[in-house]
Design brief:
The chain has a 6-stranded parallel β-sheet with strand order 2-1-3-4-5-6, with helices on both faces. The chain has a 3-stranded antiparallel β-sheet with strand order 7-9-8. The protein is built from 15 helices and 9 strands. It folds into 2 domains: 224 residues, Rossmann fold, CATH 3.40.50.1820; 85 residues, Arc Repressor Mutant, subunit A, CATH 1.10.10. Helix 1 links the parallel strand 1 and strand 2. It is of the alpha/beta class.
Length: 331
């Protein structure tokens, strides 16, 4: 089994990965956090991470925002069990070069904490929820101001673009289409060195793992499947087609039975997002005795049709019932 190792953003706690980890729905994940009271440069962050990487199993490194240069440097050293690198709303070099000269000044200035409410427009404008605001504030409260200043200074001084050429594993860049913090030029700079990097754009603000976790999981899983990093025997593989026997059973369904399946799926849906796998399981639980021997894969196919008709809204890739969600249409 391949493990997904997560390196956090500026807060360094890893607590803000909670929505993304929940959306992984059991796929093995490991969060590596950074010391909240020790100011470090990028080299020190890398030294902190390396001993915690898996040694006896394959893994994929996902580096969020601040951690991008850490992930790039580690991947460039070609660890033996590393299979891929995912950069999430991140960068290889200072994404805001106009502020580069401030790096040295920030290191010597008295540390000051910026209230999370002032950073919200840059991180998740228009997508803030009470839960996200609390989680963000809690995470930031655990990190000292001097540590945050040191991390900002590190960002303004870093340039790991040359290391990109040394990376042998496949790379994915998750790009937030409404990112107000990291400009498009950060991804472009990476593509200039490595045009083979796969770009997956997600309609979200900078906090894309927090605001669109299911879509991000689907993008990561699609990437892993495409490169054979997760094989066809994995429970995370896309929903399989119907077998000939299953297709024959489905062909015998009457129009009334098809209507009953669609009606039950809609009855189990809600105005809030629910995983397709949950919806399918509940519908089968209600109809299994009345309409026996119809597989979950067919129910998932009916969900796609309900989405196509505009009766359900969806997010994530509907080819993966475990990694997609639907809700009653708001149109």
């Amino acid at each position: 089994m391949t493990r997904l190792v997560l390196l956090p953003g500026l807060d360094g706690t890893g607590e803000l990965f909670a929505p993304f980890v929940a959306a992984l729905d059991g796929f093995p994940a490991q969060v590596i956090s950074y010391p909240p009271e020790r100011a470090m440069n990028y080299a020190a962050h890398e030294l902190h991470v390396r001993p915690q990487l898996p040694r006896d199993e394959d893994y994929v490194l996902l580096a969020e925002s601040f951690s991008g240069p850490v992930g790039i440097s580690i991947a460039a050293a070609a660890p033996p069990r590393l299979k891929a690198l995912v950069l999430c709303a991140s960068f290889a070099a200072n994404p805001l070069p106009v502020f580069g000269p401030l790096s040295s000044l920030i290191r010597v200035m008295p540390a000051a904490r910026v209230p999370p409410v002032l950073t919200e427009p840059w991180l998740y404008a228009g997508r803030g929820t009470p839960q996200l605001r609390r989680a963000h504030a809690t995470a930031m409260s655990k990190v000292s101001a001097k540590v945050l200043s040191a991390r900002v200074a590190a960002v303004l001084a870093v340039d790991h673009r040359a290391l990109l050429a040394r990376i042998a594993v496949p790379m994915l860049y998750l790009q937030a289409s409404k990112d107000r913090l990291i400009p498009d030029s950060a991804a472009s700079a990476i593509l200039q060195v490595r045009p083979d990097v796969k770009i997956a754009e997600v309609e979200a603000p900078h906090f894309l793992l927090q605001t669109e976790p299911s879509k991000c999981v689907a993008a990561v899983m699609n990437f892993l499947f495409a490169h054979g990093i997760v094989d066809q025997q994995s429970p995370e593989f896309p929903d399989p087609p119907l077998t000939p026997a299953q297709a024959e059973r489905v062909a015998r369904l009457t129009s009334a039975e098809l209507e009953a399946i669609d009606a039950e799926l809609l009855a189990q849906a809600a105005p809030t997002w629910r995983k397709v796998a949950r919806l399918v399981g509940m519908a089968i639980g209600e109809l299994g005795d009345r309409i026996p021997h119809v597989q979950d894969v067919f129910y998932a196919q009916r969900v796609k049709q309900l989405v196509a008709r505009g009766q359900l809204d969806s997010q994530g890739n509907l080819d993966y019932m475990r990694y997609s969600e639907v809700r009653l249409s708001k149109r």
